Amino acid sequence: AMAQAALGAAGLHFDDLNKLRVLEPEVAAQTAQLREECRAFVDKTAEFQKIVGSLIELVDQLAKAAESEKMKAIGARNLLKSIAKQREAQEQQLQALIAEKKMQLERYRVEYETLCKIEADQNEFIDQFIFQK
């Protein structure tokens, strides 16, 4: 016991296996435990970084997919707008054509009425000419 006290004063200690140590057994045990806890902490931190990395990757992929879909939607909207404009232009052309055909129909109607009147006049003239004979 006295030898142990003298060694302890010199900063030397015996462990459970009676090996001579510079650290007290309790301090050595605490140091080993701390080392293990640190190692576990570093491992968990690395695992967390991996998880965060894969999460960031996933979010990036989703952002790219969303951007792609947005561009498709904009393209579709622009296509619909241009189709609507084409339809509008077609409709205007058809309206103009209808107006033109209506005017033509009106001219033909007037011309027909005039021809009917001429025919009636001529028939009347022929009838009078025949009855005079």
TrEMBL record:
GO annotation terms (biological process): cilium assembly; protein localization to cilium
InterPro entries: FT20
Pfam families attached to this UniProt entry: IFT20
Localization: Cell projection, Cilium
An annotated GO cellular component: intraciliary transport particle
Coiled coil regions, renumbered to chain: 80-111
Keywords recorded for this protein, A-Z: Cell projection, Coiled coil
Protein's recorded name: IFT20 protein
Species in which this protein is naturally found: Toxostoma redivivum
This protein's encoding gene: Ift20
